[in-house]
Amino acid sequence: MATATAGTTPGKPMSLGQHILDKGTEMLQSLKPVKQMQQHVCTFALYSHNMNRQIETHHYVTRINEDFLQCPVYDSDTARARLIGIEYIVSDRIFETLPPEEQKLWHSHAYEIKAGLWVNPRVPEALQRPELRNLTKSYGKFWCTWQTDRGDELPLGVPSLMMSPQSVGSGILNPELVKSRDNRYGIDSDDLKKWRVEIEEPEWINPNADYWKNTGKGFSTEVEETEMTRKAPYP
Predict the structure, then answer these.
(1) Are 200 and 126 in contact, with CB atoms under 8 Å apart?
(2) Which of 16, 18, 103, 159 lies at a CB distance of 3.0 to 4.6 Å from 208, suitable for a disulfide?
(3) Cross-referenced PANTHER family, in alphabetical order (predicted)?
């Protein structure tokens, strides 16, 4: 497959009629779920099955409550950004209630935040600080549904599990990726790292999270053909 140009997908350009229709429905419908997105976070993610593949990600955060966030993830913050996945974020309180096999699918956020990789673009650091203190104790599960980094022009195949950058082994992030992001937003991740020294790290990070660090093994997904579950038709 040919490499896709950033922000493009196959298809005809939007017609004037379609623009008018979309504007009309926008005025008539509430779009309540979308309007609950109140934060834009830019960070990075690594494919669990191949951590040499590393991507910049843009998360648009909806807070369900103090312990649970849900985030559609895009490949940029432009008007033509492509939806590439979904991340769920839970507090340590919720994470500790999950079965051990489920916990292995999740990653910690402490290093990502302390290292200045997790940022709210254009938001002053001092304003982010209370939120960051809470998020250092959180865990995320991120499924990538559109592998734009390999040039896919459409969301092909099965979702891939993503991991958070870490300071060791395969989890170390390519500095050029960080430099490109920082230059675009006029920030310095190294400076942010110094600002965040005083943010307390969790007393304990569950070893089932970031599972690859202890085992050297990631997770891949496959489609398996199976017999359908059948039941009698409704009367």
Answers:
(1) no
(2) 103
(3) OIL BODY-ASSOCIATED PROTEIN 2A (PTHR31360:SF1), PTHR31360
Per-residue pLDDT at 20: 67
**Amino acid letter for position 96:** E
List beta partners, residue 143.
86, 161
Close Cβ partners of 35 (under 8 Å, ≥ 6 residues apart) = none
The single-letter code of the amino acid at 158 is V
Using an 8 Å Cβ cutoff, are 138 and 89 in contact?
yes
- Whether 227 has a pLDDT exceeding 60, the answer reads yes
Rounded Cα distance, 148 and 187, in Å: 25
C-alpha dihedral, 125 to 131 to 133 to 136, nearest 10°: -110
Residue type, 84: I
Strands annotated E in the chain:
37-47, 50-65, 68-74, 83-90, 107-108, 139-144, 160-163
